[in-house]
Amino acid sequence: MVSPVAEPQGRARPRLRGWLHLVGAVLMAASTALLWRSTTEPVLRLAAMIYASGVTAMLATSATYHVPNWSPRMVAALRRADHSTIFLAVAGTFTPIVLATMPPTFGTVLLALVWVGATAGIVVRNVFHHARPWARIVPYVALGWVGVITLPWLWRHSTTVAVLVAAGGLLYTLGAVVYARRRPDPWPRWFGYHEVFHALTLVAITLHWFAVQQAVST
């Protein structure tokens, strides 16, 4: 027996469910080489690879969860993995930006706190896996908006990087609100509220990709 990912009121999931993140995962993986060549500094290269790996893992896991039909047991397991990898993407995005733009001591402490927060979030998400949508998104948004602390250094490092990071954060937050409200839901048969959420995350990822590339190369 197979089961689609649950939809409100038992309706069929939109036909494009998961495909945006599948395309995003392929493009993100393919762009890793460009990030690698953006800097010759070993620490920043490693940080960029951590970022690319975290975001690729999030997108690939999301696509794996959403595209096929799975047994109910696999749906539950993949849902937990899907939600857990979001924390990896958030902490991964912080890593090169903080290391490239902030004072070493303060940046290292902040980065350690972010990764501790991400690890705690993964543990909590797997323990309280039946939480309501609003309760699910709050930890991700809270962890992501720790990035406000970095903005003064980002602005001094590069106005472009600061604007890209802030705009990406706003789009991630908007996507989280769409996910929690389940609105707008434009074409439920093909492109519903969840696809709007996924589309916003892809735009945010694109902005943050350019922010990371700029940060590690300047």
TrEMBL record:
Keywords: Membrane, Metal-binding, Transmembrane, Transmembrane helix, Zinc. The keyword Metal-binding applies. The chain crosses the membrane at residues 19-37, 43-65, 86-103, 109-128, 137-155, 161-180, 192-212. Zn(2+) binds at residues 66, 194, 198. InterPro entries: AdipoR/HlyIII-related (IPR004254). GO terms for cellular component: membrane. GO terms for molecular function: metal ion binding. It comes from the Bacteria. It is a multi-pass membrane protein. Its main location: membrane. It is found in: Membrane. This is Membrane protein. It comes from Egicoccus halophilus. The lineage of its organism: Bacteria, Bacillati, Actinomycetota, Nitriliruptoria, Egicoccales.
